[in-house]
Design brief:
It is a single chain. It is built from 10 helices and 10 strands. The chain has 292 residues and is of the alpha/beta class. The strands form 2 sheets. The chain has a 5-stranded mixed sheet, covered by helices on one side. A 5-stranded mixed sheet has the order 4-5-6-8-7, with no helix packed on it. The longest helix has 16 residues. It is globular and about 60 Å long.
Length: 292
């Protein structure tokens, strides 16, 4: 039995459909989605509907969690900043039935196929937002705590890889939709489960960026509140380098200068990071990238 594992779609339905097609051509019969279905690109209900149609094995990512946090704390002033308004506009563009779907998504899944036990998480077994990397003390803890045959995760947007210790496997499945992974290539993974054994395969795919641009135009283009970030995301998909990272590094340097070397308490601990004046100033420097 073959199961495709896809993570970090981020609204990129064109890459998503190519991965589905590739997976079915490889004999895949089941799919697992590891969260971050939406945000970054302005395609929301269409990709949620496709996920719902494809598989029941879906968990929430930090992007879905952000929308729920907004829903629960709408009166908080943090939602008035330019960066936060992009979260608000995604929330406002999602149908109510799909908001309910997101509310009901679990944070983790424990599954079994052909005698192989699988634990599916977004960030780490301990937190949706925690970044998990190989060759770290956190990874040592994960292996020590792992009860299942294999742990599958996404979130860190790194190139897909896996490690096996004492018969246990940890697999970073790759990032599909927002593939700012240093190689500019969308990735997903396939698990082949048989007689209690599992083999892993990492798949690289390609898709038409022009088709994605046309799809974005078809849904009405970028949301006004998120135009800056959505354009930076699209540019990151058509170039190997991460334009978004360049934007954030410049903005962070300006924050350090503004606050005399002492960043505000809690800076970068959440998705709200930059002051509006700095966000606007850096946006002007990146206007050449705003093609959507």
């Amino acid at each position: 039995m073959k199961i495709a594992v896809l993570s970090d779609l981020h609204g990129n339905i064109v890459a998503f459909e190519e991965a589905i097609k590739d997976a079915k051509n490889q004999g895949v019969t089941e799919f697992i989605i590891l969260g971050d279905i939406i945000t970054d690109l302005p395609i929301t209900d269409e990709i949620i509907d496709r996920v719902k149609e494809l598989t029941p094995y879906v968990i929430k990512g930090n992007r879905e969690q952000y929308l729920l946090q907004y829903e629960q704390t709408k009166e908080d002033k943090q939602w008035e900043t330019m960066q936060s308004k992009s979260v608000v506009c995604y929330y406002d563009h999602i149908r109510e039935d799909n908001k309910e779907y997101i509310r009901n998504l679990p944070e983790q899944l424990k599954l079994e196929f052909e005698g192989v036990t699988i634990r599916a998480v977004h960030g780490s077994p301990y937190s949706i937002t925690e970044l998990l990397y190989f060759n770290t003390p956190l990874m040592d803890k994960v292996f020590n705590d792992l009860q299942e045959d294999i742990l599958i995760y996404g979130h860190n947007h790194k190139v897909a890889e896996y490690e096996e210790r004492d018969g246990k496997i940890v697999l970073q499945v790759g990032t599909l939709g927002m593939h700012n992974n240093g190689i500019g290539t969308p990735q997903y993974s396939i698990l082949e489960c048989k007689n209690g054994k599992v083999n892993t395969e990492i798949r690289n795919i390609d898709y038409s960026r022009e088709k994605l641009k046309n799809k974005i135009k078809q849904v009405g283009g970028t949301y006004p509140e998120a135009k800056v970030w959505q354009n930076l995301c699209y540019q990151t998909l058509i170039h190997t380098e991460d334009v978004r990272r360049e934007f954030c590094h410049m903005a962070k340097d300006m924050m350090i200068e503004k606050y005399n070397g002492e960043l505000p308490q809690g800076f970068d601990s959440h998705f709200v990071s930059f002051d509006d004046d700095i966000y606007k100033e850096v946006s002007k420097k990146f206007e050449k990238y705003f093609i959507l």
